[in-house]
Amino acid sequence: QLPVDLSQLDALTDGDKEMQKEFATLFTEQSDKIIKILEDNCLSKDKAAWTETAHKFKGSCGSAGAHILHKLCDQAEHFNGTPAEQADLLIKIKDEYNRVKAYLAETGLLS
User: What is the pTM of this model?
Assistant: First the structure.
């Protein structure tokens, strides 16, 4: 499965490539901040911050058509495991997010 379903972006933007580029740029700018918040709260006692941030990221990923990342964020939102498992989940989220960014760059939507 590709990191991003471009047909979803096409539908969202009526095929407007410039709008898709703007969307991709905004998505990655916001996502970089969200990843930092997840990192900061990964092993924190503040479970609410982790949960709320994962929920927010899940919505963004769904809108962007990043379905694998969306599923990982859903797991993070409902996470109830050990600190080691939480750290592993964060690594998976970061790895998949890097795949999304690379794919957006490959398709010319992100510079």
Answer: 0.94
